[in-house]
Amino acid sequence: MSQPVKAPRTQRNRSNPSDGGETAGSRRAAAQRLTMRRKLAAAAMELFATQGYEATTVDEIAARAGVARRTFFRHFRSKEEAIFPDHDDTLVRAAAVLDAAPAHENPLDTVCRGIKEVMRMYAASPAVSVERYRLTREVPALREREIASVARYERLFTRYLLGHFDEGAHHDGDDDPLLAEVAASAVVTAHNHVLRRWLRARGEGDVEAQLDHAFAIVRETFGTGIGAGRPAPARPAASVSSPGEEEDVVVMVARTDAPLGEVMRTIERALKR
Questions:
Q1: What is the pTM of this model?
Q2: Distance (Å, rounded) from C-alpha 37 to C-alpha 34?
């Protein structure tokens, strides 16, 4: 099913090449910012674990981290946001993977590489990730915050895959745009399935190998349909949305203990109806 390639979106503003790109000062400032966010997150998690989420105040978190209350609010808008210090930076790194993808690469493979940045974030600190998972299971507000973060990744990957199709040329019998959206959801579902299993195992095991196996199932289900029979398009910039930005979101409901293969087969059957 051939159709015209969608025109690339306007590129995001980048540093002037003449200034050497990102400066050492900006990199240092970003590193300091992330260090402080992680310090505040560690303090929040310690207090949540010892005295409970509801009983913990922002002032106590700031005091435990050795900073003023205003410093806390320079980095986080609320105490539930404080235990997810790395998602913003990880989202930027995932978008950078999409931006730098080789023109010949299957876009589904690109998305699989992009979401590995998320898994690496969790795998970098297994003990912290396991404790954070425990807290999100116990505190509904934290769970809702985590779901909102996952939705941002899904929107990013959906936009990227849809960038390889011309939605304006959609017509009866052409399911490519639908396939792109469902494939993005499947990649995120596969990632989250492996991540939950790894966290329940207390961060033990070769999580990257497990992720590669899960992605192989996704590719087998969707890989031949994404971008099949098309010349490689000019890549659109992969934009990062802000929390609260209105976007269409595809939601799939499945049991958390359902085998990944069963989830993929259910999606595939639904697409063929």
A1: 0.65
A2: 5
